[in-house]
Amino acid sequence: MNFDLEPKYKTIKNAALDLARQIEPMAIEADGLSFVHDGVLNALKHSGLSRLMVPAQYGGTFEAIDPLAICVAREAMMATSSHLDSLFALQGIGSFAITVAGSDEQRNQWLPKIAEVDVLGALALTEQEAGSDLKAISTEISTTDGGLLLNGSKAYISNAGASAYFIVLAKEDAEYSTILVPADSDGVSTKPTPELIAPHILGDVYFDNVCLPESARLGARGEGLKNALATLGVFRVSVAGAAVGLAQAALDEAVRHTSTRVQFGRPLARLGPVAQMLADCWTEIEMARLITYRAAQMACDNPSASLNHSSMAKLAASEMASRVVDRCVQMMGRWGLEHQSKIERLYRQARPMRIYEGSSEVLRLGIAKQLLLER
Ligand SMILES: Cc1cc2nc3c(=O)[nH]c(=O)nc-3n(C[C@H](O)[C@H](O)[C@H](O)COP(=O)(O)OP(=O)(O)OC[C@H]3O[C@@H](n4cnc5c(N)ncnc54)[C@H](O)[C@@H]3O)c2cc1C
Questions:
Q1: Nearest alpha-carbon partner for 303 in 288, 313, 290, 315
Q2: Do 229 and 369 share a structural domain?
């Protein structure tokens, strides 16, 4: 068993660190926006890292999408900018259903553009009345003489207003299907959601009698939940990677501060309770990084079979990130509270990670269910 990253992952990590360093001067501005920051978008585009999000056949880096590579990249990006991390992650989350279920025509039309960041992707699952309980969605596909008709609305959709299309989960009688909806289709409109504590490109999407051809389906009728699960199988663990990066950045801030700030004649870091907090943070980050890399490696081999390990990694790392960043704020005293300081941004950005892509409570339910099944 080798716990070191293979050279190909180290190369990706270094490329992501380079990109993060490049956009660092823009990070405060970009992380405060709920629309696209052009400078960060261009830097991502020129880095070529979004090629990780599609298979080589469509202009991607590797033959198959590699969850560990995405984890390692998100770890480096999130440590510097949540805006960068989100733009990068959504290129995969918002296109994976095309990769696994799209027709040749859909793949050829969209995946090369996703790889080159010529367009942004979006995945629209959540609705006003259906969050964790996805089966409660009411957006509906009906069949007409000329093709398909889509009606309903989605809420809190990343990249809404900026993406070229939406991958939409909708009901079709008693079944669930996925459909690819170009954002400029007649009857599609978007509205920004209320600003979050950690701003994010986010909007509600409305479908009002949107006419689409039968060829807009992603996969067969009734395969919608399967497509959604396939996306989670590959990308849920990458949230854990981002959470590890965020926590590491918070600890780096706390180490810098507590090694130089002197109270009671010694650097804070030499005072027992502060040293203890530093040690606990480092230990928890290392534990989360290990479970994350392992789950991502398992997802490389078989994403759907390893979904429970991805859930464990996401649960462990996102909960850890909140604990770590809270301790780091504490260790930094009044400087931990300054608005727009690095630590304050990380503190706000850690919070949504315990809610999106499977809230901690819902993940625990799934993990416990699997545990009991295995007895
Ligand atoms: C920054 C951000 C980006 C997002 N991007 C997207 C996107 O691109 N596409 C998309 O489709 N959605 C997106 N979402 C929505 C996200 O997926 C939902 O917020 C998430 O699924 C939780 O749903 P909810 O907010 O409706 O909470 P609810 O489902 O109402 O849950 C509220 C609380 O109740 C708990 N709870 C719910 N059910 C149970 C249960 N059975 N047992 C115990 N506790 C339970 C939850 O854990 C949570 O703590 C985004 C959200 C955020 C914050």
A1: 313
A2: yes
